[in-house]
Amino acid sequence: MKSRIKHWTLGIAGIFCCWSALGADAAVRIGSKNFTESIVLAEMLRLDAQRHGLGIEHRRAMGGSAILWKALLEGGIDAYPEYTGTLRRELLSDLPQNAGQAELAEALRKRGIGIGAPLGFDDSYALGVSQELASRLQLHALSDLRAHAELRFGLSNEFMNRGDGWPGLIAAYGYAPDSVKAMDHGLAYRALASGAVDVIDLYTTDAEIRNYRIVVLDDDRHYFPSYQAVWLYRLDAAQRTPLLEASLQDLAGGVSLQAMQQMNAAVMLDKRGESEVAGDFLGMRGSVQDSEGLWQRLWRHTLEHLRLVGISLGAALLLGLPIGIVAARLQRLGQVILAATAVLQTIPSLAMFVFLIPLLGIGAKPAIAALFLYSLLPIVRNTLSGLASIPAPLRESAASLGLPYRVQLLRIELPLAARTIIGGVGTAAVIDVGTATLGALIGAGGYGEPILTGIRLGSVPVILEGAVPAALLALLVLAFFEGIERLLTPRGLRLPARQ
Amino acid sequence: MVPIQFSVENVSKRYGTGTALKDVSLRFEAGTATALIGTSGSGKSTLLRMLIGLDWPDSGQVLVDNKPLLPAERLLLRRRVGYVTQDGGLFPHLSARDNLALLPRYLGWDASRIDARAGELARQMQLPEETLRRFPGELSGGQRQRVAVMRALMTDPDALLLDEPLGALDPVVRFDLQEQLRQVFATIACTVVLVTHDIAEAAFLATRLVLLRHGEVVQDGTPQDFFSRPADKFVRRFVSARRELPQAQPR
């Protein structure tokens, strides 16, 4: 009995150790948004700092502006590349429209954020149509679209919802289109090429403009603000790490629109790695090891994925099992507990991640916390129903022996419920393996990373690099828990009943 | 090893709309064997369960050795009492031996002491010792009930409570087990309370019979009293509700 308690204590201690180890990473952590340009810019900073001897951890493709901004404010990351237009319209929307550069810097300083000098190019929003459509309908400027309500718009999710995007554009140009669809920006070009949509939003530095022969419509009412690329960084981090500030200054003013377009094209069209492209730009040709080999990468993603699933599942087991036992004992409380865990289950995973970022920052921690919460329901529910389904005569027989509740539970009730409980843990594990792929949205790594990258690059092989192992892992986990169930189900329970 | 004396004083119990027990007072003297008999729903099982706190009366009280039974004392009392139910109550995930060992192991017995006691009881119950390695699912109904009785006897209880222990067995097995139970009762000194609906079995195993109907005691006496001086028409019917063999037809 005592040794069993000791094992539990060790298990809990182990989980806390892993948990705290997650926080102990590189000294400076930067992030990038989930598109190529942002990743290339961040890689540029990382490589430049490396030259100066500063190790930087780069969390790639963490999400949209809102997630990066929040992570920066809360210290989850120390810096990320942003655009002035986004700052003015979206992130600091309380600033007056005509506020100058100094006021912008001052507003940021109050939040503990510094802004670097412009990098040298302007990545503005724009709308684009296919060359064929432009010549057929004589489309040159944004105001030309007003006369064609039949055109189908395919807009990125972020553009649809942000203040400096679609809502303002409708008001400025008086559009009333029949069809507006929200889609991933990476998919929009292909939707346009296939004729599924007619108009898409794009960035002026997008590599695909050339490749897909797209006409960028002129902003004749000057609705879109200037989107100069700048670095945002935490002032405390810059103070702590002067090398970071030095690198930020290195990069200012050196990146032209053409250079950026070329770098984007090199990644998107020539399928070269972001690090390699950024390294070339910095003149570090050949010295940059962009990617580990396929197997190394796969191994890293597997470890990251297993860590996400393992820690969250372990914690859910340690907490869910006792909760299920208590719920089985106190029936009314049990109903409340079950309802609460069921409500947790209904929260969409992306929303859950966003809720958890203020509490736990970004990266593996919030992902593990979310997976932990999702795992609770199957474990609690199966523990409860496994214990509740023990036939009344057996339960009474257990009570009549005069054994204390603890012994009854460990020697009689839990073994009788083992099969159902293990089934619940298996269900939780399979859900975890699937849901953990979404963790890549907040920089948690794992198999979701190649999936997101593949969507961004429009590369099915890269998507499969994440999707196939994730599916295999789910099958493996399923088989594993079936094995465990067979192993842990007492032999006496596997016998066919004899009359 | 001091046999327990149980008594109930004015106990009543209701289940939903039905009455299980109505103002019943009884004493079970230490070291005696009593059979509670009656039709189903007479309240005899409820009364038995109350003696070890598996059920509590709505009113009235249960006394153990003349002291009121308190919820906090239930576990200690149950360790002194062997309890056997109709289906045996053996745990299917444990072998017969592990079923026997549950309480002794908790009480700190070592394996050799448990095995010695189990072997002794197996001989007494005429159960081959290798049967103990099997799981309940691998045992016949009669073997299961023998193991259940052995489990109740493992720690030399001060009382033995049996709730229709032979109710689910076929007549031949039942006949043999009645004989073995009688021998067991004869060799131990503990207080025995047996619930059965079979008056012949009750008369065979106990020296005192208590007949219950609708939660009330109808007659309380020796088996001879029941047959020679039934208290009322119901008792007479209960005593004589047996089929005679049909007379052979003359050819």
Question: Would you mind describing this structure in some detail?
Answer:
The complex is a heterodimer of chains A (about 500) and B (about 250). With about 500 residues, chain A is of the alpha/beta class. In chain A, about 60% of the residues lie in helices and about 10% in strands. Chain A has 22 helices and 10 strands. In chain A, helix 2 (about 35-50) links the parallel strand 1 and strand 2 (about 55-65). In chain A, helix 13 (about 255-270) packs antiparallel against helix 14 and helix 16 (about 330-345) packs antiparallel against helix 18 (about 365-390). Chain A starts with a helix and ends in an 11-residue tail after the last helix. The model of chain A is unreliable at about 1-5 and about 15-25 (pLDDT under 50). Chain B contains 9 helices and 10 strands. Chain B has a 6-stranded mixed sheet, sandwiched between helices. A 4-stranded antiparallel sheet of chain B has the order 2-1-4-5, with helices on one face. In chain B, helix 3 (about 95-105) packs parallel to helix 5 (about 140-155). Chain B starts with 5 loop residues before the first strand and ends in an 11-residue tail after the last helix.
Task: Detail the topology: elements first, then pairings.
The complex is a heterodimer of chains A (499) and B (251).
Chain A: H1 2-23, E1 28-33, H2 36-52, E2 56-63, H3 65-73, E3 79-83, H4 84-91, H5 101-110, E4 113-115, E5 125-130, H6 131-137, E6 152-156, H7 157-161, H8 166-173, E7 179-183, H9 185-193, E8 199-203, H10 208-211, E9 214-216, E10 229-234, H11 235-240, H12 242-251, H13 257-268, H14 274-281, H15 294-329, H16 331-346, H17 349-360, H18 364-388, H19 392-400, H20 405-435, H21 448-457, H22 460-488
Parallel strand pairs in A: 1-2, 6-7, 6-8
Antiparallel strand pairs in A: 3-10, 4-10, 5-8, 5-9
Helix pairs in contact in A: 1-15, 2-12, 2-14, 13-14, 15-16, 15-18, 15-20, 16-18, 17-18, 18-20, 20-22, 21-22
Chain B: E1 6-15, E2 18-28, E3 33-38, H1 44-51, E4 59-64, E5 67-68, H2 74-79, E6 81-84, H3 96-106, H4 111-124, H5 141-153, E7 159-163, H6 171-187, E8 191-196, H7 199-205, E9 208-213, E10 216-221, H8 223-228, H9 233-240
